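With this grant's support, we have settled on a layout for protein records. One resulting record is reproduced below.
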Amino acid sequence: MASLTGMFPRMVQQTIQLVLEYDGGGFSGWQRQPDCRTIQGTLEAALGQICSEPVVAIAAGRTDAGVHARGQAVGVKVSERWNPIELRRALNAILPDDVWVARSHLMRSEFHARYSALSRRYQYHLGTDDCSKSPFRRRWEWSLTRPLSRELLDGCAGALVGDHCFRAFAVRGTAPRDDMHRCAVIAASWSDWRHGLVFGIEANRFLHHMVRFLVGTMIDIAGERRPLSDLEALLRADGSKITSPPAPARGLFLETIRYAPDLYLT
C-alpha cells in the first residue's frame, strides 16, 4: 500500500514569543509538575485547547513558587495559521485571572526563550511603611519596618556589579557539578518607591534562589546584623561565611528579558 504521508500537506510551524504577567502566589512555580498547579502546566493546557494538539512552552527562567512576573518570556511553536495577535487574544480568553499574555511577537526560528536571552532583570519590593502589613499588600511585597541603612544597602548593591562567583547564593545541588556559578551582573541598585524600597538587578543569568539570598543578606547588613565585608567574602565563595536566610518569595518579580533585536520578525 502506498504511503499516505504525501496526501496531506505538512503543517508549517512558526515561533512566537509570549510575554507573560502572572501572580505567582497561587502557583507552585513555573515548571510543570504532575500534582501541582504551575504556570507552565496552565499555559500548556490552554495552548493545547486552542491548538488541538500538545504545545511545549519554554520559559526564559523558571520562577519559584510564589514569585511573580511582569515580563516572563515564553517561546512556543504553533501552526502558521496563528499569528501573534490572534494567539494572544485566544489565550487570554481562556487563561485564569492570575495569568495574562501581555504581548506576543513573531520570532525567527532559531529563537530560544532561555538560551537566546542576553540578560534578565528582577525587582524585589520592600514595604517599609506601617500599611505594608495590610493584607492587600502583603501578597506582593516583604513588610519590613525595622530601621535600615540606605548607605549600606547602596554599598551592597555596588559590590554586586561585575563578574562574580555566586555559589554561596544558590541552593546546593541545583546546578551541574562542573558549573562555576559565575554570573555577570550588569546593574544592581536600590531605589525609593512610594511604599518603601525596590532592589533591581540585571544579569546574564541567575541561580536558584539567588536574588532572594542576596536580598536577605543585604537586609541583615543594612540592619547592622552583619558587616559589609561578609558580602565580599561570600562573593569570593571561600566557604568562610554563609548567607542570611532568603527573603520571602512574594516580594520578587521577574521584570523583563532582553534579546537581540534581529531575533524579532515583528
Observations:
- DSSP finds five helices and ten strands in the chain.
- The radius of gyration is 21 Å.
- The chain has a mean pLDDT of 92.
- The helical segments are 39-51, 84-94, 150-160, 210-222, 229-236.
